[in-house]
Design the sequence.
């Protein structure tokens, strides 16, 4: 049985299945609900809802290959992982990209590294202190 979430985030995606599969694999989130317009996933009291961008808006969104990192947002999702190296490899296989490991830093006893998902949304991985 999944624990009730203590915190949640909503992320809009042009490609619902690609982005939800990315976060499920890279961040280790279990998919708890999958509907045509959204996918819910969670782990450790955190829930992520990936919502499909409405078709009339999605038609105007261009996702480059590789995606252009969208740094112009005041919010960054953060996921705690067992291994930044393993999660980075998964991110690359699933269309995202992490910064080079040499750019990692320490924060509150954890190793931290930024990257972006297949649509260019910036996120962070943390390995260590939880």
Sequence:
């Amino acid at each position: 049985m999944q624990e009730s979430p203590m915190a949640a985030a909503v992320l809009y995606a042009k490609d619902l299945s690609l982005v939800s599969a990315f976060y499920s694999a890279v961040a280790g989130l279990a998919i708890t609900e999958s509907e045509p317009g959204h996918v819910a996933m969670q782990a450790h009291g955190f829930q992520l809802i990936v919502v499909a961008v409405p078709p009339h808006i999605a038609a105007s969104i261009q996702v480059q290959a590789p995606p252009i990192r969208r740094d112009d947002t005041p919010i960054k999702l953060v996921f705690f992982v067992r291994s930044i190296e393993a999660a980075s490899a998964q991110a690359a296989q699933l269309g995202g990209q992490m910064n080079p490991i040499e750019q990692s830093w320490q924060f509150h006893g954890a190793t931290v590294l930024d990257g972006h998902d297949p649509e260019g949304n910036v996120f962070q991985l943390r390995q260590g202190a939880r």
About this structure: Residues 7-128 form a domain with the 2,3-Dihydroxybiphenyl 1,2-Dioxygenase; domain 1 fold (CATH 3.10.180.10). The chain has three helices and nine strands. The first strand starts at residue 7 and ends at 13. The chain has a mean pLDDT of 93.
